């Protein structure tokens, strides 16, 4: 109880140190609620019928409180803080694999070529079921942490591959995760640069790639930000600075607290302010990716191609707490040079609500083109194949496209990068695969029909409208079948990406993009047509 009182007094003192005047309206209400919570916490710990874990109880309370805000305001323990530092640095000690966790195993989703995981014989699609002496299914925490360790230390993995159990010993190493994993000179003197994340080395890697491509003869550039989730805001400004002159506003932030209001301008001499630029985005391009694409669009510095970006216009800042923990708190919204905030969702009582297009506000680019807030960055040239419908998102959420692709490669032993050809037949096989495992796509309309059935049953109307509801469900099922047909091209693309990655790492996927990718084709076409390029930019 003495410790709980000390906690309350510490909180009150900290609150007071911020300035009583600023918080006087809420001060007593906050102190009152903290005291109520402290007493409740004590009573539950002392009197609950079963034994409780005080730390777990408090973590639950913290997470529930933050869940009521937005998904980016989170509590970090010491390990999570370290993970964030590693992610931003682009260098870490581990095995060099992208993983995803399931209740039963850790699945290898991707491999860095020549990494410890790759050299040890691990393959994409492998399911790790045991790490050392620990069964993954029995481990209550994040089993992926067990793969980390000091450089040159060994770890023994038991895994399942195509229903066969294997044991592999690998030696951990220092992994350098490149922000620019690929760049090349395409035909027609078009330089192609993939920027996959905004780590501390993002801008320097883009500069190096650009300079090398120009030496090889590049006279126009494609910057690929598709599937880039973002990262450091400072690096977003620096990457924009590669193409935009010094002293130009790239973004600014607004907050409820004045000291967090900031403007971010380019600080360095640009590498090339004249070279034609096409930026590729999709629905998984978020945060820092949207600062770069949004500023390039607002300043009419290049053409944006693909599908509407994710729409994350919020800025977080870490705040130190006790015992080495932190809170990452949303402190402000960021705005592109035209003044628009591209945040696509509002958060009310913990629920996310997508903004309606009728709520969008019009803004003007430097050359007077119309752009809009509230829904991510809308491309100048839209490519349907990059859009993800709710059906596609449901399939990806269940990992069904990935699982089918791995199974397809495993069943076709003769398959390699040279003889694999994308075709519509593979989509038919995928349809058979998900039907066999019993996947059912439940649309929002399905949910509403179920609600209507429940309501009609409770109000004794079900017998009179039963036939109508069955007809409605039958028509909906027909429309869902059409939805599958409409997604044939996108499914073909996604399956091809997964198959090629399994056969030849990310390199094979980039080769597919540059040889057959629809988005890159359109980017090259518009860059080659200077009159159309300038017309889009309002020149």
TrEMBL record:
SMART domains: PDZ, TSPc. InterPro entries: ClpP/crotonase-like_dom_sf (IPR029045), CtpA/B_N (IPR055210), PDZ (IPR001478), PDZ_sf (IPR036034), Peptidase_S41A (IPR004447), Tail-specific_protease (IPR005151). Residues 80-163 form the PDZ domain. Residues 455-489 form a coiled coil. Transmembrane segments: none annotated. CDD domains: cpPDZ_CPP-like, Peptidase_S41_CPP. Keywords: Coiled coil, Hydrolase, Protease, Serine protease. SUPFAM superfamilies: ClpP/crotonase, PDZ domain-like. PANTHER family: CARBOXY-TERMINAL PROCESSING PROTEASE CTPA, TAIL-SPECIFIC PROTEASE. Belongs to the peptidase S41A family. This is S41 family peptidase. The lineage of its organism: Bacteria, Pseudomonadati, Bacteroidota, Flavobacteriia, Flavobacteriales.
